[in-house]
Design a protein that fits this description.
Layout: H1 6-11, H2 14-29, H3 38-44, E1 53-57, H4 65-68, E2 76-80, H5 88-101, E3 105-109
Parallel strand pairs: 1-2, 1-3
Protein name: Carbonic anhydrase
Cofactor: Zn(2+)
Family: Belongs to the beta-class carbonic anhydrase family.
C-alpha cells in the first residue's frame, strides 16, 4: 500500500474511490489487513495530506471508518458525531474536504443499534 500524493488523489474518480473503500471493507470482513508501514505514512504525510474520501460516521466505538474500510493514515477524512447527523459545522468540514483538499467521494456510514438514535 502507498500513501496518496497529490497526483494519485487527483487521478482518482469517485467510482475508483468507492472501489478502494469496497475492497478495504472486503478485507475487513475477511479479517485481513493491507500491509502498511504506519511510521512511514506519518513521515510521508508530514508535509501535506491528500485523502481520497470523506466519511461521516457515528461516534459509536464500533464504527471506526479507518478500520471498517481498512485505510491508513492520510487516506480519509473521518468525521464522527453521535448519530452521524449533519449540521452546518459538519457540512462546512465536508465542503473543505471536497473543495479545498480534493476528496473524491462522501460516504455517510450508518449502523444498527445506535444509542444516539431513539428506536434504532
Amino acid at each position: 500500500m502507498y500513501t496518496h500524493s497529490k497526483e494519485t488523489q487527483s487521478s482518482l474518480t469517485p467510482i475508483a474511490a468507492l472501489q478502494i473503500l469496497k475492497e478495504g471493507n472486503q478485507r475487513f470482513i475477511n479479517n485481513l489487513k493491507a500491509n502498511r508501514n504506519l511510521l512511514q505514512q506519518v513521515n510521508e504525510t508530514s508535509a501535506g495530506q491528500f485523502p481520497f474520501a470523506t466519511i461521516l460516521s457515528c461516534i459509536d466505538s464500533r464504527t471506526s471508518a479507518e478500520l471498517i474500510f481498512d485505510q491508513g493514515l492520510g487516506d480519509i477524512f473521518s468525521i464522527r458525531i453521535a448519530g452521524n447527523i449533519l449540521n452546518e459545522d459538519i457540512l462546512g468540514s465536508m465542503e473543505f474536504a471536497t473543495k479545498v483538499v480534493g476528496t473524491k467521494i462522501i460516504v455517510v456510514l450508518g449502523h444498527t443499534k445506535c444509542g444516539a438514535i431513539v428506536g434504532a
